[in-house]
Amino acid sequence: MKLYNKSELMPLLESFGFNFSKTLGQNFLIDKNILDKIIDNSNINKNTNVLEIGPGAGTLTYELCKRAKKIVSIEIDNALIPILQHNLSEFNNFTLINDDIMKIDLKKVISDNFGSEKFILAANLPYYITTPIIMNIFEGGFNVESMILMIQKEVADRIYASPGTKNYGALTVGVGFYARPEIICQAPPHCFTPQPKVSSVVIKLNVYEKPPYYVNNKEMFFKTVKSVFSQRRKTLVNSLSGSPFINCDKVKIEKNLKNMDLDLKIRGEKLSIEQLAELSNQLFK
């Protein structure tokens, strides 16, 4: 079955009376080259568990099922369930869950299907849930080995940004704290049906066994990060001292910036993850 072939995919979808949903951001991959790159870079084998979010018609799912130990796919669209069941009926290592990833008890799903074993996350994420999904997986304490994601180029640019650039922000720091991002390939609009208005990127997040940045209080570290980037046009001193998320006076902030040999007029977007961690550690001992 070649679900990446539009001439095969579209008649199949039509036979089930399926209509694409703009609300759900449905754009199905129809490019074998990109599909191959996703598979090749996922390092999936017969010992790998995979959690897939948004399988669509099952283009990637089909290839994953041929290689992995177990696949659990979560799909919100009721109309896709019979299509997925049809397309993946030959596999006994496939479990399909019809639910909303933003509402489902993910801990129970992972525990019930993978136990304490590691898993890889594979997902084609619509723009509006990309950040919450990524951060929920990181902060949920799940035994995730890596994430291979199809996301909008704009989000990928933010994840992969460097300090001091316009795209560098809370998402960059949040992802970079937990994982090493790696761009796999670009996916222009013509690689999908229907064609989206924006380009996409396949990105792999190689999750650290242990974050390389020491923080003595993770909650306060992320509140510091949130304070810095919610008022990024202000100096670091002003954004922190005026933050509704933390309670810290200017004198203490200025003292610690001097200890770190940083200009008192510096903006927070100039600080690396390591520097933000050091500052948070000093402010909230």
Question: Can you give me a brief rundown of this structure?
Answer:
Helices cover 40% and strands 18% of the residues. It has helices at residues 6-15, 32-42, 59-67, 81-87, 106-114, 127-139, 153-159, 170-178, 218-230, 236-241, 250-259, 273-283, and strands at 28-29, 49-53, 70-75, 94-98, 119-124, 144-152, 179-187, 192-193, 200-207.
CATH superfamily of the largest domain: Vaccinia Virus protein VP39
The unreliable regions are: none
Q: Which strand order do you get reading across the main beta sheet?
A: 4-3-2-5-6-9-7
Radius of gyration: 21 Å
Number of helices: 12
The biggest beta sheet reads: 7 strands, mixed
- CATH class of the largest domain reads Alpha Beta
Examine the secondary-structure arrangement and name the CATH architecture of the largest domain.
3-Layer(aba) Sandwich
CATH topology-level name of the largest domain = Rossmann fold
Give the ordered list of helices and strands.
HEHEHEHEHEHEHHEEEHHHH
In total, the number of domains comes to 2
Mean pLDDT score: 95
From the N-terminal CA to the C-terminal CA, the straight-line distance is 58 Å
Helix proportion range: 40-55%
Strand content: 15-25%
Quick one: how many beta strands? 9
State the shape. Answer: elongated
Helix/strand-derived category reads alpha/beta
